């Protein structure tokens, strides 16, 4: 019975670690994509300013 409780605790700890890692990865992707999209908008606006002449 105690062994089953230990495995359950380990399972909860492992699940918590996986959730924390995935949350950190999502935040990292959010910031990377934000910077990428901002760069693409700058390139897009820059090319439109040249095409208007």
Low-pLDDT regions? none
Give me the Rg, rounded: 23 Å
Structural class: mainly alpha
Question: What's the end-to-end separation, in Å?
Answer: 79 Å
Number of distinct beta strands = 0
Total count of helical runs of at least 4 residues: 1
What does this structure look like?
With 53 residues, the protein is mainly α. The protein has one domain (1-52). It contains 1 helix and no strands. The longest helix is centred in the middle third of the chain and has 50 residues, at 2-51. The model has no long low-confidence stretch (mean pLDDT 82).
Layout: helices, strands, pairs:
Layout: H1 2-51
Summarize the structure.
The chain has one domain (1-52). The chain is 94% helix and 0% strand. The chain contains one helix and no strands.
Question: Which characteristics define this entry?
Answer:
mainly alpha
